[in-house]
Amino acid sequence: MGSQLGRLAQLGSALAVAGALLAPTAHAADEFEYVAMGDSAAAGPLTPNPDPNLLCFRSRENYPRVAARLIGAKLTDVSCSGAKIKDFSGRQHGIMAPQYDALSDRTDLVSVTIGGNDVSLVRSAVSCVNLLPDPLGSSCADEFTAGGKDELAERIDALVPRFDEALAQIRHRAPNAEIVVVGYGTYLRPGGCYPKEPIWARDADYIQSSVDKLSAMLGERAAAHGARFVDLGPVSVGHDACAAPAEKYFEGVVPTSVAAPLHPNAKGMQVFGRTVAEAVQRTRS
Structural domain of residue 150, as residue ranges? Predict the structure, then answer.
C-alpha cells in the first residue's frame, strides 16, 4: 500500500511539472502588448487595406500596424479619424468606446498622436486654399494673425493642460507601459509650391509653422511626463505634398494616391512606422 501511495505521489508530481511546462507563460514572457491611440494622422484614412470599423477610417497599413509588425507586438489600435483629446475618455460618434479603455497594467507600449483636431489644423489649412494667385483673394495667414495675435499659436498654448492630463491618464491606466508621443510631419516645404498646391507661399509657411509649433509642444510635454517623442518633421523633409508622387509622404489638396487630402499616404505610413519601431527598439535593446 505504501509503495502504491509513493508511486501515486511521484505520478502526481510528474503531472504537476508537466502541467506547469504546458501552462501559458506569465505576462512578462508573453506577447508585447501595444496600444495605439490618436487621430487620423495615426489612423490613416482612405489608405489601402481599410479596417472593418468604417467609422474611424482606419487603415491596416497605418504607422501603428507597421511598427507593431516590426517590433513583434500584439496591437490594439483604437486610433480614430477626427479624434480629439475628449474622445480618449468619451464616446466618439456616440458609440465608439473611449480610447482609454484599451489601456491596462498589461500594456507594454502606448503610441499617441493627437492635437491636430483640437486646434483645427486641417480645417485651417483648407481655409488657406486660393485658386487665384496672390493678391487675387485673401491670405489665411493675414486673417489668423490679425491684430498682432496668432490664433493657431494661442489654440496650441491652450491645449497644453489637456494634453498634460491625457499623458497623466495614460500613465495611470498603463503604469508599466512605455509612452511614445508621435508628432506631425512636414506637410509643406518652405514657400509651398503654388499653384501645384493652391496655397500661397506665406500661407503655406504659416500653416507649416503652426504644425511645427504643435509638434514642438507635444515633444516638450512628452519630455515633462517621461515619455519618448518621435519627431516626424525631419524624416518627412523633401517628402511633403509638393514632392513628386513617388516621393511624397503626405497628400495635398488633390491626392495623387489613395489617401485622404492633407494626410499621410501609404508610403508615409511605412516610413513613420519604421521610425516609431526604431525608437522603441532602441529603448528595448
Answer: 29-284
